[in-house]
Amino acid sequence: MLDYRKQQEWSNGFGHQQSPIGFLSATAQPEQLTTSLFEWSSPLAVTTVIDRETNFEATGTGNARLLQQPVTFQQLHFHAPAEHQIDGHQAAMEWHFVFQDALGQLSVVACFAELGAANPLFEQLLTHFQSRQTATLPQALPVNSWLPQAGGVVRYLGSLTTPPLTEGVHWYLAATPLTVSVEQLQQYREFFPQDNNRQLQDLNQRRLFKSVL
Ligand SMILES: [Zn+2]
């Protein structure tokens, strides 16, 4: 099992574009896009919940375009507490919607979750999760409502936040948070007591771009 307390030992044969990062939003360069940043071209849905030992992963289906690049939705998984930090703030959770293009290049749309109203999608996943199992959901659960539809987005080039820590991952961080309830987070932490956030990595010379959906 991945041990986040020993993450300094995770081998990283890569260079200077690691994730997650922390930054001040004022340092992100505004960009005016001539096309839409996100197009959720088809209904995206999750169909199974898999125990990944340090969190659970909901595998999915559906097509989208990220910066006009066609991608397929792979899976959604969770980090508690959040991995990225904007303006020094660490949210209660961070949700990673993972996409892949035809060449195998990965993109992650990250949504923060703060404590507040219960989240119906998260509730369904908590209900159907089974320890050490791959649980098939009784019906595919649409996830489009939980993807960013409005608000600010910061994008940058980074890496996977778990081994093999591969670089070349396109990150999109949505500023407008989702919510989960205290009870939901407690239930999740009963399944996964260990924090599963990787520590902040050096920004180095990377540029951050911000736009508004
Ligand atoms: Zn992740």
Automatic annotation (TrEMBL):
GO molecular function ontology, one term from the record: carbonate dehydratase activity
UniProt cross-references to CDD domains, sorted A to Z: alpha_CA_prokaryotic_like (cd03124)
Family designation: Belongs to the alpha-carbonic anhydrase family.
EC number(s) on file: 4.2.1.1
PROSITE patterns per record: ALPHA_CA_2
Keyword terms: Lyase, Metal-binding, Zinc
All residue ranges annotated as the Alpha-carbonic anhydrase domain in the record: 1-212
Protein name per UniProt: carbonic anhydrase
Catalytic activity annotation: hydrogencarbonate + H(+) = CO2 + H2O
Organism: Loigolactobacillus bifermentans DSM 20003
